[in-house]
Amino acid sequence: MSDLFPIAVLVSGEGTNLQALLDGVHGRDAQVVGVASSSPGARALERAAGAGVPCAVFARSDYPDRSERDRDLAAWLTARGARLIVLAGYMELLSEQFLEEFPGAVINVHPSLLPAFPGLAAIEQALAYGVKVFGVTVHYVDGGMDTGPVIAQGAVELPDARDPAQVLAALRPLEHSMLARAVTLAAAGRLAPDPQNSRRIVVLPEG
Length: 207
Fold this sequence. Notes:
There is one protein chain. The chain has 207 residues and is an alpha/beta fold. The protein is built from six helices and nine strands. It has helices at residues 16-24, 43-50, 66-79, 96-101, 122-129, 164-187, and strands spanning 6-11, 31-37, 55-57, 84-87, 106-110, 133-140, 150-157, 191-194, 197-203. Helix 1 (16-24) links the parallel strand 1 (6-11) and strand 2 (31-37). Helix 1 (16-24) packs parallel to helix 6. It is globular, with a radius of gyration of 17 Å. The model has no long low-confidence stretch (mean pLDDT 96).
C-alpha cells in the first residue's frame, strides 16, 4: 500500500484530464486508487486499466435512482481508501448524501470562468453569448450547480472563436495543468478557505 495521498477520479468519457493526472500526479504527489465511470464505454476506463488502476462502472441506468447509485459509488470509493474525489469530465450530478460522505473533499474542473456559464454545454453557452475570453475553473463541489469555492481559474483570449471544438482544444492544456496542480496542492494540505471570503480558496505556504 502506497503512503501517498489517495485520490479517486470520476469520469464519463475520453479521460484526457484523467490522463493528465496519471501522467503528472499519480505515484508522485498522490496515488490514484480508483477510477469510477458513469459509462461502461468510457475511453477513460482503458486509460486507468493501462495504468494498473482499479476501475468500476456505476451507470445511472443500473439503479432505480441517483441516491442508490451514489450510495454504492461512495461505498466503493471509501473501500479504496480515497480521501479526495476528482471529477474529471464526470457528466453526472452527485447527491447531497454523496457529498456528505466526502465533506470538502470533492473537486471539479469546469470549462468556463465561473460563475459564468455553469452546467452543461458551457463552451456553447459562452459562444452563444459572444464572449471573446474563455476559461477554466477548478473548484470544490457543493450542493449547487458549479457553485463551490473557487480553487483556481485560467483564461485564454479567442476573439474569433466560432467552433466549440476549437475552444475546447485551446482550453485542454489549461484544464490539464490546473487540475493536476490543484490535486497536488490538496494532497499536500495546502488549500484552505480564504479567511476574508469563504467562496475563495487560498494556497497555503509550504511547510
